[in-house]
Amino acid sequence: MNEEITRQQQELASLIDRHTPNSGKHDTAISSLKLFRYQGEKQPIYSVYDPALCIVAQGAKMVMLGQECYDYNPASYLVASVNLPITGQIIQASHQHPYLSLQLNFSTDQIVDIIKASHSEWGDKEDLGRGGSHAERIAKVISFINRNFAKPLRMDELAKVASMSPSSLHFHFKEVTAMSPLQYQKQLRLQEARRLLLLDIPEAANAGFQVGYESPSQFSREYARMFGLPPLSDIKQLRESLAE
Questions:
Q1: Helices (H) then strands (E): counts for the chain
Q2: Average pLDDT over all residues of the chain
Q3: Disulfide engineering: 196 pairs with which of 47, 90, 135, 207, CB 3.0-4.6 Å?
Q4: Residue 1: what pLDDT?
């Protein structure tokens, strides 16, 4: 990186530091702009990225999308051009040098314009959700799954939404999201179930039913595979960590 970019990054880190008095996510007067500060390495965080530009001013973060892993830090930036279920983890942060970043949400069209305009200005980029000329069709399918993730999905129905053949849809969907449509749906279901459980849904099975699982045992098995523990044990541990 050249000296001017380094100076700008240091200035950005100073601004974020000034407006984030404690660890966590901070809203700003600009509704689409969020600031983040973490002072120690964190456990994996499961979430769904909205279309956004994410810039790290200090520290580093790892993001997993399907089986693909992306590291980003002040030498790179991350773009999510469609809604993507991810696993994120802060991998470089301390009290003396906290992780500092910003997230600016955009529409998909705005994201594409930014990538074109800034391609040569911010060094290497990590770009989640690229899909060439088929990206707009895949974005429609992603939006459809997000609205209907608790319902059974058929490939022929999704192919109709995309105006593609089922085989072409499967290929281009995986190119954009690094997972199949059914894998994408499963991650949305399990993340929503986890959110419901944190809201004190009485029984884990009820959360599973609400997100589309008919079998409690299948729900518990797939939940543990994703989050490392069965539903109730995971939520107990998560609440304890949030209370620290």
A1: 9, 10
A2: 85
A3: 207
A4: 56
d(CA 100, CA 181): 33
Q: Let me know: does 56 contact 27? Beta carbons within 8 Å.
A: no
Residue positions counted in the chain = 244
Q: To 10 degrees, the CA torsion angle through 48, 49, 50, 54?
A: 160
Same domain, 95 and 192: no
Q: H-helix or E-strand containing 233?
A: helix 231-243
Residue 106 and residue 19 share a domain: yes
Q: Based on the structure, what is the number of domains in the chain?
A: 3
Q: Based on the domain organization, do 142 and 96 belong to the same domain?
A: no
User: Two tokens at 151?
Assistant: 């319902």
What is the DSSP annotation of 85-107? EEEEEEEE--SSS-EEEEEEE--
- Classify residue 52 by burial, with Cβ atoms within 10 Å: 0-12, 13-18, 19+: buried
CA distances (Å), origin 86, targets 49, 53, 99, 128: 7, 15, 19, 10
Specify whether the backbone of 38 is left (phi greater than 0), alpha (psi in -120 to 50) or beta: beta
Percent of all residues in the chain with a pLDDT value above 90, rounded to a whole number: 48
Query: What is the reported pTM?
Result: 0.73
Query: Computed over its alpha carbons, how large is the radius of gyration of the chain?
Result: 19
Helix (H, G, I), strand (E, B) or coil at 175: helix
3 state DSSP class of 61: strand
Q: What is the pLDDT of residue 136?
A: 78
Q: Please give the structure tokens belonging to residue 238.
A: 């998560």
Lowest mean pLDDT among 35-39, 50-54, 95-99, 158-162: 50-54
